[in-house]
Design brief:
The protein is an alpha+beta fold and 112 residues long. The chain has helices spanning 8-14, 17-24, 27-40; strands at 2-5, 56-57, 66-69, 74-80, 100-108. The protein starts with a strand and ends with a strand.
């Protein structure tokens, strides 16, 4: 899967194991595992929707974004990297057609 980043700051953190460790501490190992899974996937549908990693679509103020579990509370937030994301006939996201994603942030979605 093709992976881009929301901004240069996030790219700099994710491009370096040292920067990941400095920024996220022990969580950096979980981030590395999830990133390896995302990079190895041909499409979003290759990422399991059950724990772990439990990739799932978000709603409300995060509509259009997806969450991937890192630990009990922390999530890797991403979105399809398309002007118009591929959709199924029923209007839902076509996970099989999503081959480009953008990393948004690492966050505890239960507090925001």
């Amino acid at each position: 899967m093709e992976i881009t980043y929301r901004n240069k700051k996030i790219k700099k953190i994710f491009d370096s194991e040292k920067n990941l460790q400095k920024t996220y501490g022990t969580l950096s190992k979980n981030i590395q595992v999830r990133m390896a899974q995302l990079k190895a996937a041909d499409c979003l549908d290759d990422i399991p929707r059950v724990p772990p990693p439990k990739c799932h679509e978000l709603s409300e103020n995060r509509k259009g974004q997806l969450s991937v579990d890192l630990n009990h509370n922390m999530r890797l937030i991403l979105k399809p990297d398309y002007d118009i994301p591929p959709r199924r006939d029923d209007g839902g996201l076509d996970w099989e057609q999503v081959t480009k994603i953008q990393i948004i942030e690492v966050v505890d979605t239960h507090t925001k």
